[in-house]
Write a structure and sequence with these properties.
Length: about 625
C-alpha cells in the first residue's frame, strides 16, 4: 500500500508561479489534448492504464485538520485559473462561461482535511463543468500540475498517462474511482526540496596551471565553435579534456529546480548562453565561465548527481529518480524506440552549445574571469583575493582542504589536509542527527571563503609554507576539539540553528590567543561555565559586532577582543567593563515581542539545556544528551 499523505500548503494561492518551465511530457500532453479536441488524437496509454487498474494498489490519505479558505483566496484562484486559460485557449482566452461553478469547486475546500486530496478532487470536478469558453481540459491539467508541484511535497510522474486518463474519463470509459486510482498511482513524494543545492563539483576536475602557461599561448586555429551532448559522455575526448582552474567557483550553488530548468531549456531548444573556455599549452580545456551550465548537462548525460562524490552529503539517488521521472533518463531516451522521444532525440543529435574562447596566457585568463563575473554574478572580495593570490600557500592549502569534500584531486592534498577537512566538516551538518560541524555545512555558499579566512587567521601574517601551515592549523584544531572539547553547537550555531561565521572566525582567533598566553588559558579553564553561559544569554552580541564592522572577516579581531573582555569580566565579576568596552552592543534584557521570536528562543533554550556539561568545571562539552564527561584539559 502506498501512503499518500496530505500536506499543508506552503503558500497562499496568489504565490503560485505560473511561468515555471514545462517538461517535454507536459508540453506534449497539452498538444495531445488540443489535438483530441480537433479529432486528431487517440489515447495511446491503454495498455499501461489497464495494467495499473489490474493491480491491487491502494492509496491512503492521511487526514489533517479541516482546511479553510475565504473569499479573497477564492478570488485569487479564479484570477490564477483565468491566467492559465490564457495560455491554452485558442479562442476567447480567459473568458469564463460558468464562473460560479469554478468558484464553487474551490469553495468546497472546507469539506476536505487533506490538501492533496482536495487538489485532485478539484482537478476531477473541472471535467464535470464547462468553466471556460475553450481549453478546459488543458487548463485543468495545468492547474493540477501547478498546485501539486508548488504547494505540496509531491510531484506527478507520468503526465501523459494522466492526460490519457482525462480523455477516457470524459468519454465515460473510466469511473471516477478508476480515474482517482490512476492519478494517485502517479503521485510521488519529493525526497528533497526543489531548492536543495546540487553538488556537481566532482564532474570536472580542477588543475593548477603550470607556470609555463604564463608566457606560452596555445595555437588559436581550428577551435570548435560548440559541442553537443554526446561530447559530454564519459570517455569522449572533449569531456576528458575538460578542466577547471583552481580559482573557478565551486560547482555546488545550483538548486535541483535550476538544474531541471536548464535541461528542459536545452530540450526545448531554448537559449543557453555560451560557455567560455581556454586552452592551455598542453591542450587541456579549462572552463572559465559556465561551469554550472555545462556540469548540469554532464550530470544528466552521465546520470551522476553526486554518486561519485562519496564524501559529500549529496542526494544523488533522490535527484536521479526525480529528474528521470520528470524529464527522462538520457541513456534510456537515446536507446528508446518510443515515438514520444522522437523530437527529443532529434534535439540531442543536432543541437550544440555555443563556445567562446579566451586567448592569452594564464594571467589574462584570471583577468577575464574577474571581469566576466564583475559584470554578472557578484564576485566577493575573498574570491578576487584567492584568484589574484592563487600561488600563495594560504590559497593552495584552502583549495586542498576543500577538494577532499568535493570529489576533487589536488597536488597539494595530503594526509594532513584530509585531517583538517575532517575536523572542520565531519560529521556532515544535520540538525535532526544533532551533527554540528566546526565549520558549518559544505552545502552553503562560498565555503572556500570560510576555509580561506580560517587559514589566514592561522597564518596570522607569518607567510608560512604549506607544510608549516598544515601543522599550525592542526595544532589549533586539536587544541579546540581534543583538549578543550568545545561544544560546537554552543559556539557556532545560533537560536535559528544557522551557522555563525562571525563566531567561527572570532573564536579561532581567540583560541590562538589562549595557546600563546597561558595566563589567559588558565582564566578560561577556571571560569569556563560563567563564560559560556554569558555567551549563550547574549547570543546576539557577536552578530551586532559583525554588523558594525560590516563583514565577518573584518570583525574577527573585535570578536576575539569581546571574548577576552567577557572572560576578564567573569574572572573579576566586573561585567560593566564589557559595556564600557563595547558601548554599541545591546545589553537590555532579550525580549522577543512576536510569537515567532518567543518560540525560537524557547526552542533554543531547550536545545542548549540538553547539551552535556563537564562534571569538573560545569562548562559545555561535546557529546550527547545525558553523557557524563570531563574536558581533557580539566583532568590534567
Amino acid at each position: 500500500m502506498s501512503a499518500i499523505m496530505g500536506v499543508k500548503f506552503v503558500g497562499s494561492i496568489n504565490n503560485i508561479v505560473i511561468n515555471r518551465t514545462m517538461t517535454p511530457d507536459e508540453r506534449q500532453a497539452y498538444k495531445n489534448l488540443k489535438d483530441y479536441d480537433g479529432g486528431e488524437y487517440k489515447v495511446k496509454s491503454i495498455e499501461r492504464i489497464t495494467e495499473v487498474l489490474s493491480k491491487d494498489n491502494k492509496y491512503q490519505i492521511m487526514q489533517n485538520s479541516v482546511l479553510e479558505t475565504n473569499q479573497d483566496e477564492i478570488d485569487d484562484f479564479l484570477n490564477y485559473a483565468q491566467l492559465v486559460n490564457f495560455r491554452h485557449a485558442d479562442f476567447r482566452p480567459g473568458l469564463y462561461v460558468d464562473k460560479s461553478a469554478y468558484e464553487s469547486s474551490y469553495a468546497k475546500k472546507v469539506y476536505f482535511s487533506s490538501e492533496l486530496e482536495f487538489i485532485i478532487e478539484l482537478f476531477i470536478s473541472h471535467h464535470n463543468i464547462h468553466g471556460f469558453a475553450d481549453g478546459n481540459k488543458r487548463t485543468a491539467l495545468n492547474v493540477l500540475i501547478d498546485l501539486t508541484n508548488k504547494l505540496t511535497k509531491y510531484y506527478l510522474k507520468d503526465i501523459l498517462l494522466i492526460q490519457d486518463a482525462q480523455i477516457l474519463y470524459l468519454e465515460k470509459r473510466l469511473t471516477k474511482q478508476e480515474f482517482l486510482k490512476l492519478i494517485y498511482n502517479e503521485v510521488k513524494v519529493k525526497l528533497f526540496i526543489s531548492t536543495m543545492k546540487c553538488n556537481l563539483e566532482h564532474l570536472i576536475p580542477r588543475r593548477n596551471i603550470e607556470a609555463s602557461d604564463n608566457n606560452q599561448i596555445a595555437l588559436q586555429s581550428d577551435r570548435r565553435s560548440g559541442f553537443n551532448l554526446t561530447d559530454l559522455e564519459k570517455g569522449q575526448f572533449f569531456y576528458d579534456q575538460l578542466r577547471k582552474p583552481v580559482f573557478q567557483r565551486d560547482t555546488n550553488q545550483w538548486t535541483v529546480e535550476r538544474l531541471e530548468k536548464l535541461i528542459i531549456t536545452f530540450l526545448d531548444d531554448g537559449l543557453i548562453p555560451a560557455i567560455i573556455l581556454w586552452e592551455s599549452s598542453d591542450g587541456e580545456i579549462y572552463v572559465i565561465d559556465g561551469s554550472h551550465r555545462i556540469s548540469s548537462l554532464i550530470a544528466w548525460v552521465n546520470s551522476d548527481y553526486g554518486k561519485e562524490n562519496q564524501l559529500s552529503d549529496s542526494n544523488h539517488n533522490a535527484i536521479e529518480e526525480y529528474i528521470n521521472d520528470k524529464i527522462g533518463s538520457y541513456n534510456e531516451i537515446k536507446a528508446s524506440k518510443n515515438e514520444k522521444y522522437k523530437q527529443v532525440k532529434q534535439i540531442i543529435a543536432k543541437r550544440s552549445i555555443a563556445v567562446q574562447w579566451v586567448t592569452g596566457n594564464y594571467e589574462k585568463v584570471k583577468e577575464s574571469f574577474i571581469r566576466i563575473n564583475e559584470q554578472g554574478v557578484v564576485i566577493s572580495e575573498d574570491e578576487k583575493e584567492l584568484i589574484e593570490n592563487d600561488s600563495l600557500d594560504t590559497s593552495k592549502l584552502s583549495r586542498a582542504i576543500l577538494s577532499h569534500g568535493l570529489g576533487q584531486t589536488s597536488r597539494d592534498q595530503s594526509e594532513k589536509s584530509l585531517e583538517l577537512f575532517n575536523r572542520l566538516f565531519i560529521p556532515y551538518f544535520s540538525f535532526h542527527l544533532k551533527n554540528f560541524p566546526l565549520a558549518g555545512s559544505l552545502n552553503e555558499d562560498f565555503v572556500i571563503s570560510r576555509i580561506y579566512n580560517f587559514v589566514k587567521i592561522v597564518d596570522s601574517g607569518e607567510k608560512l609554507g604549506i607544510k608549516d601551515l598544515e601543522e599550525k592549523a592542526l595544532n589549533l584544531l586539536c587544541f579546540v576539539q581534543d583538549e578543550l572539547n568545545i561544544n560546537q553547537q554552543v559556539y557556532f550555531y545560533g537560536a535559528t540553528q544557522k551557522f555563525k561565521t562571525n563566531s567561527f572566525y572570532g573564536f579561532m582567533r581567540f583560541m590562538s590567543l589562549l595557546i600563546e598566553n597561558q595566563d589567559l588559558l588558565s582564566q578560561f579553564v577556571n571560569n569556563r561555565r560563567e563564560f559560556e553561559d554569558y555567551l549563550v544569554e547574549n547570543e546576539r552580541h557577536i552578530q551586532e559586532i559583525a554588523r558594525k564592522k560590516r563583514q565577518a572577516k573584518k570583525a574577527y579581531d573585535e570578536v576575539a577582543d569581546y571574548y577576552k573582555a567577557v572572560l576578564e569580566a567573569c574572572s573579576n565579576e566586573e561585567f560593566k567593563n564589557i559595556q564600557l568596552r563595547f558601548p554599541y552592543l545591546d545589553f537590555r534584557e532579550n525580549k522577543h515581542v512576536s510569537t515567532k521570536g518567543k518560540n525560537i528562543l524557547r526552542k533554543y533554550e531547550d536545545n542548549i539545556s540538553k547539551i552535556p556539561r563537564c562534571v569538573r568545571c560545569g562548562g559545555f562539552i561535546d557529546g550527547r544528551e545525558g553523557e557524563t564527561k570531563s574536558h581533557s584539559i580539566c583532568t590534567k
